[in-house]
Each structure stands twice: as C-alpha cells, then as structure tokens.
Amino acid sequence: MSNIPIRSEAEIEKLRIACKLASDVLIMIEPYVKEGVTTGELDRICHEYIEKEQQAIPACLGYHGFPKATCISLNEVVCHGIPSEGKKLKKGDIVNIDVTVIKDGYYGDNSKMYVVGEPSIRDKRLIEVTQESLYKALHIVKPGIRLNEIGKVIQQYVEKEGFSVVREYCGHGVGDEFHCDPQVLHYYADDGGVVLQEGMVFTIEPMINAGKKEVRLMNDGWTVKTKDRSHSAQFEHELVVTKDGCEIMTIRDEEIESGRIQRFMKNS
C-alpha cells in the first residue's frame, strides 16, 4: 500500500474527462434497459457509443481476456457478468452495468443499477441500501482518515439493514492504469489502515447481497454469483481526495438533482 500514486492536477483533469465519458455511457444506455433486450445488445450499444461517439476505448474489452466491452450482471450475479445474445431481460430483473472508459490513457470507472419494470420490495430495498452505503462512504472521505473507515461505515450500515457485504471483491486505485493501489475494502479490516492524502484516486464500489455474503466463481472464469442465489446489487464511483473531502468524478446529474449528495458538486 506504500505505492499509492498521488495524482497531479494535470492527471486529475484527464481523469475528469475519462470519468465524465464513463458516466455518460450509464446515462445513455438507460432507455435501452427494458424487457426483451439482450445483455449482448446492451453491450453492443455501449461499445459503439464509446468508440464512435466518444472516440474512446472500452477498458474491459480484452482485459485479462474479458470478451466484452462492459460487465452486465443480472439478479444473483454479483459482478463481472459477461453480456450474451442468449440472455434476455425480463420483468422484475435488476441489472448492474459496469463501464470503464479509457481516454488519452486515463481511466474512468463506474457502475449503477437498473430495474426492468417493477422490482420486488426486497430488491428495491437492496438497491436503495447499496446506493446509500456508497454515499455514506463518500461522505467520510477526506485527507487524514484511515482507508479502512470506508469499509467500516459500509458494513455497519448494510448489516444493520439486514443485508451482507461481499468480501472477495473491492474498490481500487485507478489512473493511467485500470487497477493499482490502494485496495478499498467494503467491510472493516483492522489492517493498520492507509491514511488518505489529497490527490489519491480510487473507486468505492460496494457489492451487497440480499442473502448471505458468500459467492462462487462460475466456470467461465469471470461471472461471480451469490452462493445462496439471492440477488445482489452494486454502485460504483471514482473519486479524487481533495483538501477537505473528495470530488466524485463520475457523478451524474440525476444524483445531484436528488439532493442527497450536494456537497460533491464539482467546483463547489
């Protein structure tokens, strides 16, 4: 953890651009997330938009052999779902779309949940709690706190609400490479704790299960599912630590307009 990069203002500006493109993809794809569409079609739309409209690169495609431009995870899939022409969305599905864009050598990484039709009461609450756990973590980020405080606030809130936190996958440093230090755990670990400094850039991306926390990796080597087949949700933002808090570089207008995270408005 001693090799955590401190990003220069020039780097941060490039990251802002990449992050804005990544968040724009999540906004663009929303109208297409509906009953009957395949996850393969959603991936194709995102892929074409990133390359043709944004003149950027989809980071997932080819990363350690991953075959698609995005990760699309349905229902009991926790993360790294591979889009497929054989997987059609149906009413009641909950869907995570995870998009990372490379622009001028810098990475913007984010994900959000979508619902097809009307979700179950349990799924609706799962999604709400997952997003709120991310916001609670973002609100404590500032120079001088220990990194493990992020996991502590997420775990305490999620478990109080009756859900569980996945242990095997975490947030990560990001910049001119897809993954670097620090690892950002979404549960509390008494590891001595890295102290946050201004200029650190990383993601927070809690994966929250409706049932138990245990997961299983499928035979394709990528798809991760809940072991008990309960549904799972995830939200992800990329941020930079600022002198008095953090800037969410992948923030979307819908979140600002909700009034829940006003303090993260850029240049506020």
UniProtKB/TrEMBL annotation:
Residues the record lists as binding a divalent metal cation 2: 109, 172, 205, 236
Gene3D superfamilies in alphabetical order: Creatinase/methionine aminopeptidase superfamily
EC number(s) recorded for this UniProt protein: 3.4.11.18
Gene: map
PANTHER family according to UniProt: METHIONINE AMINOPEPTIDASE
UniProt family annotation: Belongs to the peptidase M24A family. Methionine aminopeptidase type 1 subfamily.
One of the record's GO molecular function terms: metal ion binding
GO biological process, one term: proteolysis
Residues reported to bind substrate: 80, 179
Cofactor note: Binds 2 divalent metal cations per subunit. Has a high-affinity and a low affinity metal-binding site. The true nature of the physiological cofactor is under debate. The enzyme is active with cobalt, zinc, manganese or divalent iron ions. Most likely, methionine aminopeptidases function as mononuclear Fe(2+)-metalloproteases under physiological conditions, and the catalytically relevant metal-binding site has been assigned to the histidine-containing high-affinity site.
One Pfam family from the record: Peptidase_M24
Cofactor(s) named in the record: Co(2+); Zn(2+); Mn(2+); Fe(2+)
Catalytic function, reaction form: Release of N-terminal amino acids, preferentially methionine, from peptides and arylamides
Binding residues annotated for a divalent metal cation 1, in chain numbering: 98, 109, 236
Peptidase M24 domain: residues covered: 13-243
Organism in which the protein naturally occurs: Otariodibacter oris
InterPro entries: Creatinase/aminopeptidase-like, Pept_M24, Pept_M24_MAP, Pept_M24A_MAP1
Annotated Gene Ontology cellular component terms: cytosol
Species classification: Bacteria, Pseudomonadati, Pseudomonadota, Gammaproteobacteria, Pasteurellales
Protein name in UniProt: Methionine aminopeptidase
Keyword annotations from UniProtKB, A to Z: Aminopeptidase, Hydrolase, Metal-binding, Protease
Top EC class, one word: hydrolase
